[in-house]
UniProtKB/TrEMBL annotation:
InterPro entries: TPR-like_helical_dom_sf (IPR011990), TPR_rpt (IPR019734). It comes from the Bacteria. This is Tetratricopeptide repeat family protein. Gene3D superfamilies: Tetratricopeptide repeat domain. It comes from Lyngbya aestuarii BL J.
Length: 463
């Protein structure tokens, strides 16, 4: 054994002995952790410290602070989200047994974990409502209300979503120092109009949000900058979705790329851990524009990247969307030979069936309807009449279908396709694409604008 290694082992042994004799003050360890950045912290170590302080009232507050501070990081990986939820539940129980008042942020953290583990969960909704009732700080209360609006968006409860956002807007305009919350409110108002197909209104609200966020960013308010950049990235991402829906694919892809650049800037500047979910969504949306522009090879490249990122993190609805998109791409590059066609159709049906089942299991109604409609278009393409009748029946009895029909009776099938993310598919898309190619060819992508050389090397076939 060399001398240096021997010395280091001795030092290590001495340190262990001294720790055994004088265990460090838990308060000091808590403070040490609370001062660390997201990137520096190891969540396993946090959990160990939390466990060491079970059933000790004096550490309730610090435990709660730690669970809230690193919540975002814990939500990025599914297995950590589950561990985090266990710790939160344990602390809520201990609070309830004692006579100490529970902080609203703990209910909020519980809501975020539950909403991450399942798209639709009545229990999650009740916890965020508790947090809103308990919270006295106006900033936090607005944040919680906007989180609830997001929950309604994900579960397609658009009327409830709009009601909350309207309340938030009134509150934000009453006070002068709530411009970050106002920007977020306007952004979500844009989401609402996007999902109810009023695209010009959606773009208008999102542009307003973007302007506010850019102004705050230029003023360099340090404590808010991280949040501002994240919101700005979401704003650009959604503007991309609006342009996409308007068939301006070139502009859409530019906005997606810009959104991802802002996200990366936030990550390097504020030493944040990698937001796998947001990056996965970037690849998914870029893939959709490419697929719609018939750049199949590049679309496949980005769907593949998206799927890999989603597998690392725990975004259930995203994972489902990419698996549905890939089902559609199966066999896109294959010739018209009948033997091939039959086996491809079988593969596609299987993948769509699995995705529909998964969507039902996690309560993701929009994904379930998307799977059914993709199956419907597939059965038309392959003239599978028997299956077509079965699938049609499943579609008209799906709860999500009714939500769309009743919320918007003048709904066209093309809008329904758009609303549930069915891009680059079906006869309606082909007609619009041909029109655009003739009248506004500069709207259609000729090649993928990303920075990945492996993607650029791919030869894209126009089919
Ligand atoms: Zn690319």
């Amino acid at each position: 054994m060399n001398k240096n290694r021997e010395q280091s082992l001795n030092r290590h042994e001495l340190l262990k002995q001294s720790l055994r004799q004088n265990p460090p003050d838990p308060n000091r360890i808590f403070d040490l952790f609370l001062n660390k950045s997201e990137l520096e912290i190891n969540l396993e170590n946090v959990i160990t410290v939390l466990r060491d302080s079970y059933d000790k009232n004096q550490y309730f507050e610090k435990r709660s602070q730690l669970l809230v501070k690193f919540l975002d990081k814990a939500l990025r990986i599914l297995s950590t989200t589950e561990q985090w939820l266990d710790e939160i539940d344990r602390l809520i129980n201990e609070y309830e047994k004692s006579s100490i008042n529970l902080p609203a942020s703990l209910y909020y953290a519980k809501f975020r974990c539950l909403a991450t583990l399942s798209v639709s969960d009545a229990k999650a909704e009740s916890f965020i409502e508790k947090a809103i009732d308990l919270e006295i700080n106006i900033y936090n209360q607005l944040d919680y209300q906007l989180e609830l609006a997001m929950y309604y968006e994900n579960t397609s409860q658009y009327r409830k979503m709009k009601k909350i956002i309207d309340q938030c807007e009134i509150l934000c305009r009453q006070y002068s120092n709530l411009d970050q919350q106002l920007a977020r409110t306007l952004l979500y108002l844009g989401h609402y109009y996007f999902y109810t197909f009023q695209l010009d209104k959606a773009a208008n609200y999102m542009n307003q949000a973007q302007n506010i966020l850019e102004t705050i960013y230029q003023e360099e308010r340090d404590q808010e900058e991280k949040e501002i950049l994240k919101l700005l990235s979401t704003c650009l991402h959604y503007l991309g979705r609006v342009y996409f829906a308007q068939y301006n694919f070139v502009r859409a892809s530019r906005f997606y790329i810009k959104a991802q650049q802002v996200l990366e800037k936030a990550r390097t500047k504020y030493t944040l851990s990698n937001d796998l979910g947001a990056t996965a969504f970037y690849h998914l949306r870029l893939g959709q524009v490419l697929e719609a522009s018939k750049l199949i090879e590049s679309a496949d490249y980005h769907y593949d990247k998206s799927q890999k990122e989603f597998e690392k993190c725990g975004n259930l609805s995203g994972k489902m969307q990419v698996s549905l998109a890939r089902a559609n791409l199966i066999g896109s590059q294959v010739d018209d030979c009948m033997v091939n066609k039959k086996s491809i159709w079988k593969k596609q049906v299987l993948q769509l069936r699995d995705a529909a089942q998964d969507a039902q299991d996690i309560g993701y109604d929009r994904g379930y309807l998307e799977a059914l409609l993709r199956r419907f278009l597939l059965d038309i393409k392959y003239a599978q009449i028997g299956d077509l009748i079965k699938v049609s029946f499943a579609i008209v009895t799906a709860s999500e279908f009714y939500k769309f029909i009743f919320s918007n009776p003048s709904l066209l099938i093309s809008k329904l396709q758009l609303a549930i993310g069915l891009y680059g598919m079906g006869p309606y898309h082909m007609i619009r694409l041909n029109q655009k190619q003739k009248r506004q060819p500069h709207f259609i992508l000729k090649a993928c604008p990303c920075r990945y050389p492996e993607c650029r090397k791919r030869i894209n076939t126009l089919i």
